[in-house]
Amino acid sequence: MNTKEIGLVPTLLGAGRQRQEDTIDYSAGIILHKKLGDPLCLGEPLATLYYNRAIPIKELKKRFIKA
Fold this sequence. Notes:
2 helices
């Protein structure tokens, strides 16, 4: 698990700042539905990503899953 990469995804969703002048979207972020070691069944959600701006969400989903 690449925790640094997982932590970067919410920032790219708008929940954090990349630069000091960036605004924070308090409705953006990630809810994790599982903890490390929890069983996961096929088709069961691992996480929910929330965002409000035009971003390449498919790319961010892949990035999150890969991490």
